[in-house]
Design goal:
This protein is an all-alpha fold. The chain has helices at residues 20-23, 28-51, 55-62, 66-73, 82-91.
Amino acid sequence: MARKRPLDPKVRVTPSTGNVFRDLGFTDEDSAHLLVRSDLLIQVQKLIATRRLTQVQVAKLLRVTQPRVSDLLRGRIDLFSTDTLLDMLARLGVRVRFVLKPSRRGLKVA
C-alpha cells in the first residue's frame, strides 16, 4: 500500500470549479461552450475507438477528409463547432439529448 506524502506547505492548491476551462481563465460563457464541445468531441473519439475504425473509414462515414479526422482524433477542439460535432455523432448513429441544469451561481442582475 502506498503511503501518502504530506503536502508541501509551499504548494498552493486551488479547488476546481468543476470546469477545467473556467479554471484556466476562460470567461464563464466561453468555458461553458468549451466544456460542451469537449464532451461531444470525447464521445466521437470514444465511438471511433470502440468500433476500431480507420481514419479513412471514419472520413467516409462522417463525410469529411482524412486530415479532418486526424484533427478530431488529436483533440483539436478549436477546429470543431458544436453543430459539427452533433452532426458527426448523428452520422455515427447517436441521438444526442441535453440535460439542462440551473447554474449554482444564480442569475445576477446589474
